[in-house]
């Protein structure tokens, strides 16, 4: 599976509906940007999609979900934990196999931080930590990328590099983005969320940044 077709997506907190009910169909090969003001429901929608698509997806959550005490290598390797036996994962914790070491080093190189491979993740900057979560998603190589503000802590050139890389490595993606210009540049479709509902769903080619500002 690469695309997905979900319906009946709903979420409530304390009895208050914050998402849906809504449906979202994403075709294989589409890069969907979720845009909308803070609190509109983008993160909740990403979480709902992940619950349904789960193992078929590579997730970059907004809180990154890193294990600070472990080196960068192990955090990236976690992207493939469920693809190996317990024995393999236990050995990797103590003495990683050269094949995996090389693969992870290559990914970190593509993300401009190969020298951080064995450093504890806690010692990294916010932008470096964000790139570790991105490397973990890339290492997972799932058919669908689900990413929640994956470039929020990156500087301009690095944000572009990461968006290029994500577009190149994932055929299908749903990415929550605050930056409307980046959404238009790197995503083929814009889905605007307002009060937990889809308020805009259009091809990027047919939109300009000002068309999207009405959501804010
Ligand atoms: N764990 C939670 N408990 C209570 N309310 C929550 C929880 N998570 C989200 N909400 C509420 O759900 C709504 C949608 O939140 P969500 O995080 O999905 O928005 P968002 O569009 O991703 O915002 P942002 O751009 O700031 O990340 C908000 O009103 C928020 O307060």
UniProtKB/TrEMBL annotation:
Keywords: ATP-binding, Cell inner membrane, Cell membrane, Membrane, Nucleotide-binding, Translocase, Transport. It is a peripheral membrane protein. One of its GO terms (molecular function) is ATP binding. GO terms for cellular component: plasma membrane. It is found in: Cell inner membrane. InterPro entries: AAA+_ATPase, ABC_transporter-like_ATP-bd, ABC_transporter-like_CS, MetN_ABC_transporter-like, P-loop_NTPase. It comes from the Bacteria. Residues 4-215 form the ABC transporter domain. This is Phosphonate ABC transporter, ATPase subunit. It comes from Marinobacter adhaerens (strain DSM 23420 / HP15).
């Amino acid at each position: 599976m690469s695309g997905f077709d979900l319906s009946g997506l709903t979420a409530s907190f304390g009895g208050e509906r914050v998402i849906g009910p809504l449906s979202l169909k994403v075709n294989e090969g589409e890069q969907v940007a979720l845009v909308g003001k803070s609190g509109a429901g983008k993160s909740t929608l990403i979480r709902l999609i992940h619950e349904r698509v789960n193992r078929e997806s590579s997730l970059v959550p907004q809180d990154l979900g890193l294990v600070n005490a472990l080196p960068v290598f192990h955090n990236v390797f976690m992207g493939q934990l469920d693809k190996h036996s317990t024995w393999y994962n236990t050995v990797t914790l103590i003495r990683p196999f050269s094949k995996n070491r090389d693969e992870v080093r290559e990914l970190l190189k593509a993300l401009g931080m190969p020298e951080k491979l064995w450093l504890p993740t806690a010692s990294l900057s916010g932008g470096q930590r964000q790139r570790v979560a991105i490397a973990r998603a890339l290492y997972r190589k799932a058919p669908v990328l689900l990413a929640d503000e994956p470039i929020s802590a990156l500087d301009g050139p690095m944000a572009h590099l990461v968006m290029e890389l994500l577009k190149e490595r994932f055929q299908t993606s749903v990415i929550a983005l605050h930056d409307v210009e980046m959404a238009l540049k790197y995503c083929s479709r814009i889905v605007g969320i307002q009060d937990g509902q889809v308020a805009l769903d259009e091809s990027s080619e047919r939109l300009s940044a000002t068309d999207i500002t009405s959501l804010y």
